[in-house]
Amino acid sequence: MKIVYISGSPRKHSNTDELLNEMLNRTGGERVKLADYRIEPCRSCWACIKTGRCGIKDDMKTTLIQQILAADALVLGTPVYFNNVSAQLKAFIDRTWSIRGKLRNKIGAAVVAGRRDGAETALAAIHAFFLKHEMIIAGRGISGVAFQPGTIRKDRQSFTEAARLADRVLELGAALYCPEWRKPKG
Fold first, then answer.
1. Do 65 and 98 form a contact (C-beta atoms < 8 A)?
2. How far from the centroid of its chain's Cα atoms is residue 116's Cα?
3. Whether 32 contacts 64, CB under 8 Å
4. Can you give 112-161 as a three-state secondary structure string?
5. Which end of the chain, N or C, is less surrounded by CB atoms within 10 Å?
6. Number of other residues whose CB lies within 10 A of the CB of residue 113
């Protein structure tokens, strides 16, 4: 099973990244740091509706779309900014409109880090993304309590929850992608 971890944090070595790394170390996969890529916001040009492809030439089109289409599971992580996801993750989410219908039945998991306020709305934004793409959500997601760099380490419960969420992603993957699961009964 191929799992892609997508970090929407603009900070290097962020609290969000620490939680994503906790999961990644348990499941394997690859991590994508959106801040390392050039992702322009959606222009509502409708090129994707007319041609089936996004009309913006940037790293989202040339690299990231292929990575997420090849994945069996996506784990999206973000810091909480103004009770929502980061601008980097929002631009990523909006730009997936060009591949609507192509993420169906992939597994999705959500990770947020913030001071408490806004964690639920940030999780809801990520879950709305998964639902829009008809993905399978692996639980309610996790929210770590942190603000300044490195303070997530004080929230040991978030690391326990990250391990549980990682195990749930693997459990769903085994159920969905295990060849024995697909064999006809009888």
1. yes
2. 20
3. yes
4. EEECCCCHHHHHHHHHHHHHHCCCEECCCCEEEECCCCCHHHHCHHHHHH
5. C
6. 28
pLDDT tens sequence across 81-135 = 999 999 999 999 999 999 999 999 999 999 999 988 889 999 999 999 999 999 9
| CA 20 – CA 41 distance, rounded (Å) | 24
Instruction: Give me 21's structure tokens.
Output: 């790394």
DSSP string, 61-81: IIIIHHHHHH-SEEEEEEE-B
Domains of the chain: 3-182 (3.40.50.360)
Question: Mutual orientation of helices 156-177 and 15-27 as an angle, nearest 10°?
Answer: 40
* 119-132 helix and 87-95 helix, angle to the nearest 10 degrees: 10
92-104 per-residue burial string, b: 16 or more CB within 10 A, e: under 16: bbbbbebbeeebe
Which range has the worst mean pLDDT, 26-30, 48-52, 81-85, 90-94? 48-52
- Degrees, nearest 5: CA angle 144-135-25: 45
Cα–Cα distance for residue pair 103/154, rounded to 1 Å: 35
CA 91: distance to chain centroid?
A: 13
